[in-house]
DNA sequence: ACCACTTAGTGTCAAATGTCAACTAAGTTA
DNA sequence: TAACTTAGTTGACATTTGACACTAAGTGGT
């Protein structure tokens, strides 16, 4: 009979991350160059094994990988899904529990100039990167970008790609770049007001050579709010 | 170091199913009574281990469990997510890869009168069943019902709870019962026409004592279509 | 034959929404 | 202080949406 006590029956389980950041050039994803054998030398999504002695749950494992491999504490983490079959890893039947993380350009630049040689940001064109990826990570990345893009339409998720304080103009620009089309300013502001997930920060403003803009921040305990309608 | 070769480091992995059917009384889920030790005698979502020698991938494993435990081939199967932590299973760090399946009342009645003693349909009130569930299956069931209910709002998913041929009135009734509110007939029909995922079946009609209704069926390769807006 | 009844399916119109464009506001630079 | 740039608001108009009434097509009773 099959039981969990037949250890060799258990599939291999990894936790992999699609870490997204938005830079002036577009959307980028963090990739790691594999140093060990299956697909050694190829680029892959950063990932790791579950530490059954250290990780309380799956999200904790994902956050640990995020910190270990990328030195990042992401404001936003969401499970994308599980990908598992007999052939994706030559070592045997394996699962990838995949999360996507959104980080702001602040955190981004911290690592961008760093001395990490095995981790690098790569631009996403369409729903893929230029370089071939290890395992079935191209498929997984496609699923993650699809999830991100589809949620942009009807949620407040893109706010996590901005620094803690931001203007409404910047927020609109993020939506526009993710959606690939321009939005109406007045309609956009009306929606954001109705959604009621950001609040003005008093006293502050910024920028140069023109009228300063009101700064906003995400309201506490409002990390993702869904719109009634498409923006 | 941790590697997949340290077999005892691997978490236990099961594939569990939330199988839904809609009966006149409301939404029901198929539960299995556990015969073996962890939580023996308790009700649980039907599930099984991955057979690394037989299952091609996760969905194949889910379909096998569906056939083995419930004798059902579901028209619709969707991954809900992975639930994993150190404590949910007393045997150790474990994962549940959860799928939800939607079946039509036809398939339902086939099993309802059957001689299965360890599998039973239970009504869902709110997002839970009356009886306490093994492991964290109450949490998992809550996630599955939430997924089902949220998708009703903006997708064609509820067709899978109907038999192959159905009328627009029946389809509207399914939406109304899942949403818990009544819908406008003309608006509903306009939406369904725009979504363009069902087609009339020629010549046929049915019912008694009033005007017969046109029968429809799901268009091929259109199992789930998303609406632009909430219905 | 005809009327009452039931459900199927369509049409209408006011209200809400999205689009487009102009307008005012508040800063910087020359 | 005038020109310029971006922030933020306001209003007119076309389009879409939702509530409701209407017509259509059957059955069954008298």
From TrEMBL, chains A, B:
Gene3D superfamilies in the cross-refs: Nucleoside Triphosphate Pyrophosphohydrolase, Winged helix-like DNA-binding domain superfamily/Winged helix DNA-binding domain
Signal peptide: none
CDD domains found in the cross-reference section: NUDIX_NadM_like
Location of the Nudix hydrolase domain: 23-124
Residue ranges occupied by any NrtR DNA-binding winged helix domain in the UniProt entry: 159-218
UniProt cross-references to InterPro entries, sorted A to Z: NUDIX_hydrolase-like_dom_sf (IPR015797), NUDIX_hydrolase_dom (IPR000086), WH-like_DNA-bd_sf (IPR036388), WH_DNA-bd_sf (IPR036390), WHD_NrtR (IPR054105)
GO function term, MF aspect, one: catalytic activity
Pfam families named in the record: NUDIX, WHD_NrtR
Name the UniProt record assigns to this protein: ADP-ribose pyrophosphatase YjhB, NUDIX family
Organism encoding this protein: Rhizobium lusitanum
